[in-house]
Amino acid sequence: MSKIATIAWREFKQTVVRKVFVLAILGIPVLAVGGMALLFMVIEGHVEPPLKGTIAVVDPSGDMMDAARIEFSPKRIAHEQRRQAEQIQEAVEELGVPSPAGMPAGGTFRMGIGTGIVEIEIEGVTDTRDATVDALRARVFSGDLVALVIITEAVLEVPDPDAKDRARFELLVPDSIDNDHTSFIADKMGLAVVRVRAKRAGHDPDAMMSMLKEPRAITRTILEGGVEQEESEGLREIRAQIIPMAFMMLLWIAVFTSSQHLMMSTIEEKSNRVMEVLLSAVSPFELMAGKIIGHGCVGLLIMSIYSGLAVISLVSLAMMNLINLSDLAYLFVFFIMAYFMIASIMAAVGSAVTDIREANTLIMPVMIVVMIPLMLWPAISQSPNGTLATVCSYVPPAIPFVMILRIASDEGVRPLWEIPLTIVWGFACVLGMVWMAAKVFRVGVLMYGKPPSPLQLLKWLRYA
Hints:
Layout: H1 2-16, H2 19-45, E1 51-58, H3 64-71, H4 74-94, E2 118-125, H5 130-142, E3 147-150, H6 153-156, E4 170-172, H7 179-200, H8 205-212, E5 219-222, E6 228-231, H9 233-271, H10 274-279, H11 284-316, H12 325-352, H13 356-370, H14 372-375, H15 377-382, H16 387-392, H17 399-408, H18 418-444, H19 454-460
Parallel strand pairs: 1-2, 1-3
Antiparallel strand pairs: 3-4, 5-6
């Protein structure tokens, strides 16, 4: 044990006591926070270019002209801009996130056309002859018109709810127009069409549009003891999707950062013949065990730093209710499981090759399996107790990544006995994978030349 501890300390010290390692570990949170701050500053400082000019509306009935003028009126657009800012501010307040310093009440978030200057005149055209339309197209191309909208009578008719195909209007814009402006014009013209339909049906368009606005639900969750807890839609989305993904990514970063260092150091020592000197003093198993434990401590340090920063951030934002402390305990349990699974593979591959390119070829099949939780993250977190999530919970080496997704999800794991069962099964797989890695490590650590194929690695398992 003393030799294993010595090797473990050597691996840990050589990895951690480096300026590059310290900068990398501490630099990632700093870059993340700095990137978010920069993004906020860019969004806050972004102002859409003004949308000014004339939009020609070709409509043989002439009904669209007044409706379009109402939708593009400065008063209506100013009201929509204020309402958009209020809605964004309400969403932020519902999440419980403090407003940035200096933000005026009512919200100043800038979003798309919401802060751009809009001065549009509507030019009505009832002549639908090809020559007239072609002349209008030429004016769009030359920049004389901001857009050309062609409306047919079928578009203004109330559509059949059972019809598969809906009538559409044409929108022609110059190539130089901003994409947000194109979407803005299309949305406004769509509202104008709805306004015409309501008026033709004998209804007040504004009253109809107000009536169709869906009311927002006040959702309360009933907890133990009959206590009701109110949660916004944004908080539910964070619990259901963001929190599980954050747990899995934290596990992923810690495991693969440390295990990658393990494989690289193994390849480097083998290619430099340092491995032969080490094996003169220790056995292959002691060397492998020391290297795995040493780099495991590196991963544990990374996990502790990042999870600690996450907890401090949640406490400072008064959002600790988003996670359970028991989930943090499970995070460390599944880190140990995930690390020994991946590290045993990395150690075995690193001992069998002398070049990182050769190693990448051998570990590719394993990486495909481990990528399953990343690819299926939305499905698993959305239905943590579904058939897909349950089956993936027993497939090594994806077990710890899938289970932390399920445990951290809003629904949790049901039934609860699946958690200890997967832990027992996972650590049984760890023992088997470490045993196989030791077999490969013993043979491959002193072999040079052509790298082995996956079938040759399996043959090495039979060697004593």
